[in-house]
Amino acid sequence: MQFYFLWMSLWIPVFLTGQSNPKYSAPGRMIDANGFQLHLLVEGEELLGKRPTVIFFHGAGDVALHWNLVLPKVGKFVTAVAFDQNGEAWSEHGHNKSLLQQVYDSRQALENGGFPPPYIVVGHSLGGAMALLFSEQFRDEVNGVVLVDGTHPDVVLKIFDREKKKAFWKKFRSTADQDIPPIIKTPLLEKPAVTSVQFKRDFGDMLKKFSNRDRDLINWLYNIRPLTYVKGQSNDYSAEIFEEMFQNRDRYHLGSIPLVVLSGGDKDAPQGDEYWTTEALVQHRDDVQKDLLSFSDNHKHIIAQKSGHHIHIDQPNLVVKEIKRLVKSLL
Q: For 187-216, b where at least 16 C-beta lie within 10 A, e where not — what string?
């Protein structure tokens, strides 16, 4: 594929290096997913099985710790579980990075960790697409979905054209050019060989509401510990999966399962180009957020007026409030 999508434009590569010994051990639980370990942050275990389990998928470039302004508060009234996806933070690398595979492996970790359905699925950004994928794969186990500025299958992203050496705004699904690999349901028998690269990320004041401990952990993950990856396994097939979702959206319709769409109302306007003007990008961004409502007959749309893309960081209490309201409606 000649295009490279810029989910992580704030990352700056510094140098290649070998693996380092971790300074910080995993703050949550390491649980077998499908022959490898996923890291889960868990709150409210004493409520396990008494109410729906709320599960959280983070966005691209983020980790489970980014939910920590929401997770402990949700854990006061329900069991709450946030995943570090395949190869992210403390989670090991699994079969591959396909979003479909990651959703399946997350479900295996829930089962092996003793977190039973029903589930309320919460997803931020790309994690919102994963929430819809999870709901399609495990429809009978899902009681509600919350999309936190979730990614729509028709999303427009800034794509880098390696031949022209220039980035363009483009509907990401239109870059699909490969077959989606089938979900591997057999255990991983051999751990993949990993290599690493050092990145630096400037969070600005994004982490000011987090505890000192969480800030230290996040800074270590992003700016001190090298990022590990498996050569040839970086493709998450999101373009292909978005195209499939767009063309077959009836498969992903939730029916009467309640859906809450939280949209950031204070996002910066992207700079346009010769293909998409700034005005067109903003209009499309707003239109697809509204269109997410069409994935359920039972929906609610809230615009978080004081939030950018990370509503769970800008207005965490709003996210908690809507999750609590949804839980109560299901009791």
A: ebeeebebeeebbebeeeebbeebeeebbe
**Of 17, 1, 309, which Cα lies nearest the Cα of 161?**
1
- pLDDT tens track for 26-70: 999 999 998 999 999 999 999 998 999 999 999 999 999 999 999
Provide the domain limits for residue 60.
3-330
- Dihedral of alpha carbons 259, 31, 200, 312, sign: positive
CATH number at residue 244: 3.40.50.1820
Helix or strand holding residue 228 (H, E)? strand 227-229
User: Any idea what the Cα angle at residue 117 is, between residues 116 and 120, rounded to 5°?
Assistant: 125
Comparing CA positions, the residue from 297, 295, 185, 309 lying closest to residue 245 is 295
- Residues 265 and 306: beta-carbon distance below 8 Å: yes
Total tally of structural domains belonging to the chain: 1
Quote the CA–CA distance of 178 and 260 in Å, as a whole number: 32
Q: What is the chain's mean pLDDT, rounded? A: 92
Per-residue model confidence (pLDDT) at position 124: 98
Q: pTM score, two decimals?
A: 0.93
User: Which residue's entry shows tokens 């057999």?
Assistant: 186
